[in-house]
Amino acid sequence: MSKRNFLEQEAPANYVAGLGRGATGFTTRSDIGPAREGPSEEAIKAALARRAEQQGLAPPTAYGADKKKDEDDENDPRFQDPENEVGLFAGGAYDEDDDEADRIYQTVDEKMEKRRKTQRELREKQEREEYEAKNPKIQQQFADLKRALSTVTDDEWANLPEVGDLTGRNRRARQAMRQKFYPTPDSVLAGAAGSSEFETSVQDDGAAAAASNQDQVDGTMTNFVNIGKAKTKVLEARLDRTVNATHTSSDSASGATNIDPKGYLTSLSRSTTQSAEQIGDIKRVRELLESVIRTNPKHGPGWIAAARLEEVAGKMVPARSVIQRGCEHCPKNEDVWLEAMRLNETDNAKIIAANAVKHNPKSIRLWVEAMKLESDPRAKKKVIRKALDIIPQSVVLWKEAVKLEPDPNDAKILLARAVELIPLSVELWLALARLETSENAQAVLNKARKAVPTSHEIWLAAARLQEQQGNAAKINVMKRAVQALARVEAMPSREDWIKEAEKCEDEGAPETCHAIIRETLGWGLEEDDGRRQIWMDDAESCIARGKYETARAIYAYALRIFYNKKNIWRSAAELEKNHGTKEALWSLLEKAVEACPQSEVLWMMLAKEKWQAGEVDAARIVLGNAFKQNPNNEDIWLAAVKLEAENQQHENARTLLTTARQEAGTDRVWIKSVAFERQQGNTDAALELVNEGLQMYPKADKLWMMKGQIYENENKLPPAREAYNAGTKACPKSVPLWLLLARLEEKAGVLVRARSVLDRARLAVPKSPELWCESVRIERRAGNAAQAKTLMAKALQECPHSGLLWAESIWYLEARTHRRPRLVEAIEKVGNDAVLYVAVARNFWAERKLPKALSWFEKAILVDPDYGDTWAWYWKFLQQHGSEEKREDVLSKLTVTEPRHGEVWQRVAKDPRARFKNSEEILKAVAKELDDQ
């Protein structure tokens, strides 16, 4: 609602126009009614009386108060109201206007007070926060430590050491120990450095001999170097012992005085008591445990702990006595009986076992241990069968009884009886099925399925049985299994089924593995759940775990649903290529090109596999079919050209290129045509093609580069310069063109022009690490080290995250002693970069730290396996310090990876003279060129 104009608003209460200028109300004939009058005398009296009552004062004199009393009050300064108006404003009567004014002023005051309160509270809050930040409370200082306490385990709480004696009871003894303490002599520490407890020596033989001679000459001389190294050795040995003790007894208490309320009995091992011996606390532990068993004699763990303490202390008789007393006090505790059986000899242990099973006839562990005490198989059977008479529902006892039977027929009889008594034990049913023949096993599994309808393990056993009989293709057991398990709501999840399929693959049941995936992979997934990506992730996870058959089954199922998805076909083909057979790969790719005839990648994969297998004619047929499906596809044209060129069919290749330029005349086809003629040594034809191609594609920077390189190879520098200059004008963003032009000028000996070219290049392509690096290299090759460092500083400011610049700076512009800290700084700024990792590896190589160099070379390859220069440096390293096996492994991986990039790699690989070289030959050529740098 908009605010009304001031003149259109209603007048306030008691408003009289002109009253402030001395005017009074009057009435004229034109007035409708009489003018408003002021408040009446009665109203004024009532208002003054209310105000006096609110202030706790007597009414004014004019309205009934004692005049004398008012005069006394006015004269008495104690009762003077500081708010009463005196002097100029005295004598005024309080009316409705005054009351309204007071309310208005009060409203304004409250509003201002509220505004000031908000600002004041904000200022006070800021001041309080600053004060608390500068002067934190004790509670705040230890807040992070309190939060860390939530991660402390029960074992760590139990391992906290006791505080010791705080009463002063042993104060004199401690003072005496302090007085008797002497620091370890330096000779002892120096002798410890060469003892057999540590590594050979702390210094070289020559230095040791010199130190020994010096000590003999002057006995007062102290070799502080030896002492410091000895102390370091002692500290390392102590730390090693601590770490080993922590690993070997991580589940036991750190001291025998610490008691775990849940499991200190079972964790009180030899290592625990030995730790107690080391700190001289066995007596104290014994007193503590005696207190425990005396306070609560029915507490079995206390008796076991006391017996183990005596055992490790070497007192077997007291240990057996203590545990015997424990058996008497805790006859129902099977742990105490088991400990007594362990501590006694075999004959006594049998007697103890007999008493134990008398007191605990339902204890399976006692019966099993009693059986193990017997050495005669017949006695073992007798014990276990007696146990089965008492506990016929124990699966553990039945399994032990079956293990004791050497005859499979007797074992089958026992298992038949076991499944009658325990029909819900899947484990016993499966054991019985494994012992039966194929026909009887099928009947057993049918009974097991009826007894335990919720068990998927029985269905899997049935499927594997059908696979063994050769009926897996005829009888789809898994389909019935899914229906039956879904009917009783016992269907496992997709992830569980994949794990079962992997288990079947490990156990040699591939058909069952495929059946599981085929029937369960889509369980619980809808069409809009992103099934394709989920199945692709499942297959990749299986490949990562080495379960290739399971991944193959997942791809097969996904291809049945998504038959026309070429990425699934490619992933399946990669699986067969890396982990399958050649025939399986061919069959898969043939199905793939039928499903996706417009995918040139699949066609070329099939043609390449045929060609690499030596079937050139079959590869030609594949490419011919690909032409029919993709008539104007440049990739297929170029693949056909490559096939003919690699098989020395140059005329066929030239004819194909001519046809390709007419039907699919892209710039790439023209580039390949020029490259083919250059490889054949036909310079004139190549130059003619490149000029013709530039008329059609003036923005193709590679054509300009090839034109300049043709002239440069013929040592025609002015035409080459002209070609490069024209190329930079047509393609100003092409960094390789600028680099070729700058190197041409440097080759011609005109460094000023080379610098000018690179300056113009950096303006056209800002923040290019390659251009900055080339500028630095030109100055470095010219011997201007100071200018190179200046340019490198600017380059690193422009491109701080370039591994190429950091590697160039550290390797060529830094002193050898400064390389390592600069490498650390570079890695922190750049992160994962293959060029930088190679620089780190080369630095370790120069420092003769070969294992570290090897590790960093491998890291560089993992970061970017497509960077060929990394492979070349690694090969160069292995030639000097690697084994033959390692070099063969690198060559095999190189053949699979086929790197295509790299500063030196590309220059060597794209040389027309290297047209028939494979990856191994290019690797060796690049390594040789690195040697010449």
TrEMBL record:
Subcellular location: Nucleus
UniProt domain PRP1 splicing factor N-terminal: residue ranges: 11-169
Alphabetic keyword roster: mRNA processing, mRNA splicing, Nucleus, Repeat, TPR repeat
Pfam families: PRP1_N, TPR_14, TPR_16
Positions with biased composition (Basic and acidic residues): 65-81, 108-134
Region (Disordered): 18-134, 194-214
Repeat region (TPR), residues: 834-867
Bilayer-spanning residue ranges: none
Matches recorded under PANTHER family: PRE-MRNA SPLICING FACTOR, PRE-MRNA-PROCESSING FACTOR 6
Protein name: Similar to Pre-mRNA-splicing factor prp1 acc. no. Q12381
Organism: Pyronema omphalodes (strain CBS 100304)
